Amino acid sequence: xxxxxxxxxxxxxxxxxxxxxxxxxxxxxxxxxxxxxxxxxxxxxxxxxxxxxxxxxxxxxxxxxxxxxxxxxxxxxxxxxxxxxxxxxxxxxxxxxxxxxxxxxxxxxxxxxxxxxxxxxxxxxxxxxxxxxxxxxxxxxxxxxxxxxxxxxxxxxxxxxxxxxxxxxxxxxxxxxxxxxxxxxxxxxxxxxxxxxxxxxxxxxxxxxxxxxxxxxx
Length: 218
Ligand SMILES: C[S@@+](CC[C@H](N)C(=O)[O-])C[C@H]1O[C@@H](n2cnc3c(N)ncnc32)[C@H](O)[C@@H]1O
Hints:
The chain is of the alpha/beta class. A 7-stranded mixed beta sheet has the order 3-2-1-4-5-7-6, sandwiched between helices. It is globular and about 45 Å long. Helix content is 39%, strand content 22%. The structure holds S-adenosylmethionine (SAM). The site of S-adenosylmethionine has 25 residues, from helix 1, helix 2 and strand 2.
């Protein structure tokens, strides 16, 4: 999906998103937050934060930054932060997760909930998540992955032609991400449909070090 289609889809969804996708996608959000294991003082980035449904679930002693390309979704996230008095939310910014303005190694934890199957270039997204995550930080995804069940898989393939209207790719496969950056170290299944994934970090940092002869020697 091209970014303009994403923006148009989530402009349409913004007003009904919480009612339609709030409870339905909550098990995955909860499972990811549990897996995150935040420590006091850590900085967390949530990309594709949407209406901020997960924001009240972060511990109060971590600092959370959320980004999204949809101003309408962000507007609702900002209203939620004000309503709930979430002082641990540092910033909510309109930004493309495939091309972020943050310097490298900024965050301890980087999170993408139901986003990797929405963006135009999933591999570029994952590369960016690595870049902005500290070398000893961690990256977490929760998403639906294309089903291996022949009936459900065929249904997803059929639905995939309506991706622009739906606002996501029902047939998203992890194989769309090069194994070097998409190395998943842990997977847990949530309610049959979704998987929480922990990605091995440090790839981009090791690559930068290898390209820099001074750093490589030290
Ligand atoms: C399915 S919603 C998930 C929202 C939220 N994470 C949740 O759990 O409900 C996908 C979100 O990703 C955002 N998104 C899609 N492409 C993006 C991109 N390239 N950069 C930042 N956000 C993006 C959409 O605007 C939308 O808010």
